[in-house]
Amino acid sequence: MTESTPLAVELRGITKRFPGVVANSDIELRVARGEVHAIVGENGAGKSTLMKTLYGMHRPDEGQILVDGREVHLRSPNDAIAAGIGMVHQHFMLADNFTVLENIVLGSEPTKGGRLDRATARRRITEISDSYSLGLEPDALVEELGVGDRQRVEIAKVLYRGATILILDEPTAVLVPQEVDELFGNLAELKREGLTVIFISHKLDEVRKVADSITVIRRGTTVGTADPRTTTARQLAEMMVGAELPTPATRDSTVRETPVLRIDHLTVPGAPGSRAVVDDVSMTVREGEVVGIAGVEGNGQSELIDAVLGLRVPSAGTVVLGDEDITDWSTRQRREGGVGFIPEDRHRQGMLLEAPLWENRILGHQTRPPAVKGAFIDRKAAREDTARIMSEYDVRAPGPNTPAVALSGGNQQKLIVGREMSAHPRVLLAAHPTRGVDVGAQSVIWELLKDARAEGLGIVLVSADLEELIGLSDTLHVMLRGQLVATVDPRQVTPEELGGYMTGGHEATPAGAA
Amino acid sequence: MKAAALLLAGSMALAACASDEDTGSGSGGSGESSAAGGDLQIGLAYDTGGRGDKSFNDSAYAGVEAAIKDLGGEVTELTPNADASNRVDLLTQLADDGKNPVLAVGFAFADALAEVAPQYPDTQFAVVDSSVEGTGLDNVTGLLFAANEGSFLGGVAAALKSESGHIGFVGGVESPLIQEFEAGYVAGAQAAKPGIVIDRQYISPNGDFSGFSDPAKGKILAQGMFQGGADIVYHAAGGSGQGVFEAASEAGGRAIGVDSDQYETVGDPALQAVIMTSVLKRVDNAIQAYLTDYSEGSISGGTDEVNDLASGGVGLSTSGGQIDDIKTQIDDYTQKIISGDIEVPTTP
Amino acid sequence: MTLVRRVGTLLLAPALAVAIAVVISAVVMGLLGVSPVQVLKVMVDLGDTPSQQITAVVAILNRALPLFLAGLAVAIGFRMSLFNIGVEGQYRMATIMAATIGAAVALPAPLHIALIIVVAMAVGAIWAGIVAVLKVTRGVSEVISSIMLNFIALGLASYLLTGPFRGSPEGASIVSTAQIPESGRLGGLNGVFDVLGLANPPRQLYGFLLIAVVVGVVIWVLLQRTRFGFDLRATGLSPSAASASGVDARRMVVKTMLLSGAVAGLVGLPDLLGRTYEYSSDFTSGLGFLGIAVALLGRNNPGGIALAAILYAFLDRASVPLQSASLPSSVVTIIQGTIVLAVVVANEIAGRITRRAAERASRQSSGPPPDDSMTTRQVPGVVSEGTP
């Protein structure tokens, strides 16, 4: 790193306090022009606060921000854009029923006589698309685009506004492996053209693949920088959490003979006129077995889980729990019968955000002790048991009366896992159990699942994290367009191969053959 | 969805309380008519809507005003809230404040009077449109109107002036009181022109008093009648009558007003032109007479004062001169009713 | 959280709403050239003699009773995000049916009154049940169907009153049902004033007050302390999470609407059993809509609704003395109207404040103490792990 050219971005001693808490303290960050600089850290470590500071969404209490060697004062995102800083958010902010062109120019439309000057806009967008190999079609409707394309639209939108420094917030979280590779290709193009990219992630393998340099954040401050060429993912992770790390891998099989959940030719109809969302799926989960389901999102995994839980009515097939046919049971009967549930979207299906933790402890277990006595809620017991879960499962919150919304994603998830485990289920439906949680919580959750499996729990695991799937599963199915198209051996398969099956690129092996 | 429904709920709640928005304006006039402070300390409790309705309540006020001019004194006016649940409070307040007599405008005060009047035996009450005979309230006087007789003359006028032989009636609320208007009107029209076609419609069913304050719906009903061939429509619909006048103006037809001389009160020259006559219910005369009697000490209470054609309590207005040509026929029917040759029905 | 703070957060939104409304109203009054101080003085002046003061209190409580019940009925629906705009029609149908059946039977007093109450609740529940059935079988929005049913109730009640249920003589200016006999009436509670050594005015405090208190407590227990209440509230907070937890959303809609309708059926009873003893064409209307405002103001909590109903009734009562003092009584309407809007705004603000406080608290408990991070901080560049 030469000091002759000024750094693209330099942060000196940035401190940001919120009432009662220091979100960032004494942050030091040096990003050279024309590099991809990764910022890694656990969820809640302060990455978002830092990026909001840099994007002008709030002002630091102390410290300096230097862009191209000159100090800047960013009062709003507009100031940041004027300074050449652009941000690609994790959740895309695109209008679905607008075209690519319209989305890109939205908010800074070139006008001619008060009307949108489409010709100028189209010319500039084509220029941007060509010079960075983004491959955009200006007239395509955004709603028809895939996730990767949408992300490129977001990038183009930032470039259109003249940004030379791009902040990408967890850009790979929503992408499948093949799309991740394409994104990295785009980043290389940006770099070649002299742009600077700040890349936020907690996926360490990706970071090592794409970044030129890495800054690690822990507990609100920068703890060090690392060279991706010489640092292993494990070393990085240990810097992030400040301790040694677990892995998802479980190699000792605890699978027993007794099946706890049998799904037979289960079919769930889709919208009228479209194909079935779950199409003739059969599988068996035995005691102590983790059955993984891999697949690109939207291929029927959620619907399969819903059908097993009784939230969707199948048009054919049966679900057998232990030796009882539960196909016609209500959701409540199923949950009483021992089906645990970790939902893929905990805010939608797993929590009452505005309710206190102790009420969330009751959710899904309204008919069972300890929180319920007859027709009444046992508030005292519910609070006590919530406190127990909080300490046993390391849920960090002031107490059982705290509203769930105040907790970080990881702590919410640990509460859900603790709650489900406390009911001693026979089968656990775990959909993306570690999505959006930090490394520390992730390892806790993995350990919990492994322990429960060892005690004989059967687990259906749906995940987009292929490492997690491969590491935890005893049996691994691949789901594509509602069908189980392949069954692979998690001990043999690589994430790349699995990605191939998921996108239909590999020739499918007959289900159940592995 | 949630926000939208909240807004909806909020606006409906607002609407529920907003309808008495202008009631306050009516109260500002207390004492202004006679600050001198003569003998009379009159309490005036309006029906819903309060002063400014260009009809019933205004007519009552006019009577009080005229009485004060003659006799001196002052008046305190109170208007009920939107759902009229506080009529008892109105009367209690007036009686507590030492007002005497206390005038209640509208039959809806009957129940409230039954509760309040016995508590204030030294106060004289009067109620418009409600009979007190047989109720045992000996300090309440009922001021009644033979609305059927006035409406009979309205029917005669409409029948004689109609060129199409087809007339209409728009009632505000299908209550017995308004049905009396209808009955008289129909009887009068048929007497003057047997076989005449009479459309009869009410804006709202009994129990829903919106029919007295819904000009839009009044207009729709009247439009239907004009389109169906009617050329004169009589309304007994309070504030909704405005819509009937508008419909008449647009259709080139004519209308008959009610209660007060609406030719004088409507205020809009275009609408004035269509008001052929109004069936007067001289609440002002009745109240003025009552107040005069009161000041002379000749009120006994517990009785009804019936204001009919004979006493001049009801009749037809002639402002605008549109019915001058049929004056003799009208006078003829008036005499027959007064003499008892014609018995006007009270129910249709 | 201490009790004081919990009560504090509970009262934050309504207090804020009332404050906003008072400020706006004061500004409006100022623009109208009316002295807000004078208005306030008239509002709080309950009368000169003890008898007048007690009468004023009785008037407020009697007015607050139906408002409380209407607010409660609305709030039950609100608690699970069901907007029962149909309380108006529900209580109208319930009152006319209860009045008619109450007048038609002869039973010993407690049974007679119980029968009337049961009929009212049943009719209210049935009328609300139509909304629920339409929603779960045909997906009709409860807002639309309950508004439509209000109109139908209005027409139907009018038809029944002037037709089969008519009890008043032909030609009477007010059409009413037959009178409920003595055994079906609820006496007043003015005996309490004698016991307390207060003046005992002729105006009777409705005996239904006791029943309303019981209903309020029962609803509170049901919502806050039972499994059913938990399921109901969970469905309101997150329908998807509730159904994943085993709540049958459709059955919940039906049960909630039936409960809401049953309470709505009681709205007309304080007047019916305590004063009018008959349903008539001028029976108080519009209470169902006021109930929406009261429920909002009371934050859908029975205790809050009781306070909100009393506040509303207090303001209503003030309109008469205000007129008497030559002040515009429309300030009452302005205050009530602004309170409704202010409460929506204030709920949002208070929600944010409490959430932020909670977030701060949990960040403090889960996050590192700032001092700790300062001491363990490694200065970049000096200790750069992995960098040669």
Structural features:
heterotrimer, A: 514 residues, alpha/beta, Rossmann fold, 3 domains, six-stranded mixed β-sheet, globular, C: globular
Structure report:
The complex is a heterotrimer of chains A (514), B (348) and C (388). Chain A has 514 residues and is α/β, with parallel strands linked by helices. Chain A is built from 17 helices and 24 strands. In chain A, the strands form six sheets. In chain A, strands 6-9-10-3-11-12 form a six-stranded mixed beta sheet, with helices on both faces. In chain A, α13 packs across α14. Chain B is of the alpha/beta class. In chain B, strands 2-1-3-4-5-11 form a six-stranded parallel beta sheet, sandwiched between helices. Chain B has a six-stranded mixed beta sheet with strand order 7-6-8-9-10-12, sandwiched between helices. In chain B, α4 crosses α5, α6 runs antiparallel to α13 and α8 runs parallel beside α9. The longest helix of chain B is centred in the first third of the chain and has 17 residues. The radius of gyration of chain B is 21 Å and the shape is globular. The radius of gyration of chain C is 25 Å and the shape is globular. Chain C is built from 16 helices and no strands.
In short:
The complex is a heterotrimer of chains A (514), B (348) and C (388). Chain A has 514 residues and is α/β, with parallel strands linked by helices. Chain A is 32% helix and 25% strand.
How would the blueprint of this fold be written?
The complex is a heterotrimer of chains A (514), B (348) and C (388).
Chain A: E1 9-18, E2 21-31, E3 36-41, H1 47-54, E4 62-67, E5 70-72, H2 77-82, E6 85-88, H3 100-105, E7 111-112, E8 115-116, H4 118-131, H5 147-160, E9 165-169, H6 177-192, E10 196-201, H7 204-210, E11 213-218, E12 221-226, H8 233-241, E13 259-268, E14 278-286, E15 290-294, H9 301-309, E16 316-321, E17 324-325, H10 331-336, E18 339-342, H11 346-350, H12 357-362, E19 372-373, E20 376-377, H13 379-392, H14 409-422, E21 427-431, H15 439-454, E22 458-462, H16 466-472, E23 475-480, E24 483-488, H17 495-502
Parallel strand pairs in A: 3-10, 3-11, 6-9, 9-10, 15-22, 15-23, 18-21, 21-22
Antiparallel strand pairs in A: 1-2, 1-4, 4-5, 7-8, 11-12, 13-14, 13-16, 16-17, 19-20, 23-24
Helix pairs in contact in A: 13-14, 14-15
Chain B: H1 2-18, H2 23-27, E1 40-45, H3 56-71, E2 73-78, H4 87-96, E3 102-104, H5 110-116, E4 125-128, E5 140-145, H6 147-161, E6 166-173, H7 176-192, E7 197-204, H8 215-227, E8 232-236, H9 241-251, E9 254-259, H10 262-265, H11 269-272, E10 275-281, H12 283-295, E11 304-307, E12 314-316, H13 327-339
Parallel strand pairs in B: 1-2, 1-3, 3-4, 4-5, 5-11, 6-7, 6-8, 8-9, 9-10
Antiparallel strand pairs in B: 10-12
Helix pairs in contact in B: 3-12, 4-5, 6-7, 6-13, 8-9
Chain C: H1 3-32, H2 36-44, H3 50-79, H4 87-104, H5 109-138, H6 142-162, H7 191-195, H8 208-225, H9 227-237, H10 239-244, H11 249-264, H12 269-276, H13 287-297, H14 302-324, H15 330-366, H16 370-376
Helix pairs in contact in C: 1-15, 2-14, 3-8, 3-11, 3-13, 3-14, 4-5, 4-6, 4-11, 4-13, 5-6, 5-11, 8-9, 13-14, 13-15, 14-15
